[in-house]
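YM 10:42: Molybdopterin converting factor sequence, as discussed on the call
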Amino acid sequence: MNLHIQLFAGLVDLFGTAVLTISVDQDSMTIAQLKDKIITDYPAVSAQLSICFFAKNQAYAGDQETVSASDELALIPPVSGGQPSRYEITDSTIDVVSVTSKVNHPNHGASLAFIGTTREMTYGQRTVLLEYEAYVPMALKTMASIGEEIDAKWPGTLCAITHRLGKVAIAEASVVIAVSSPHRADCYDASRYAIERLKQIVPIWKKEIWEDGSEWKGNQTGPWNPLQAPQADN
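YM 10:58: structure's back
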């Protein structure tokens, strides 16, 4: 069967069409299966798809609802005024102000933005640029889990993380972590925790490209074990 899915706003630019047609060898499928099929056919859209909802016959549909060729389907991106995702992966330049705005809170007296940038010189070796890739669906989930850990350790503290993929030039930001809290001590601690935890568990890989070669870099802070619980504070 052929499923015709209406697209809106930025999704039209992303897919290059206003109506996406998905062909499958079955008479019906669940929304979850349809999402998986779209990601298989268009792997680059997995991050954007994770924050969208499907509509079936002009009503929002859950992952377990079944759809068929006779249904009117639409893929709905976040609407104007909706809450932006606090955890994002992007191929574009990161807007630090936009990330920081996600943790603004009237009862918080402190906020910090950590900006990780491409460094030119490392131990005497000149880096030309960095290149990042990620297992996007899992990366987004583990970023969100860092926010949950932070809320458990410092109740009420908010965290937002945006990480860049692809090529990142010297002095450009590869990651921005914004944190806000009622008190500055918690804010500083949570910000440090977020970047260290990101390097430990989020499946994002960095290639350092030099003038005379390149190398994929793994964990550089000791033995890597993403299943290990966070270390207790001293």
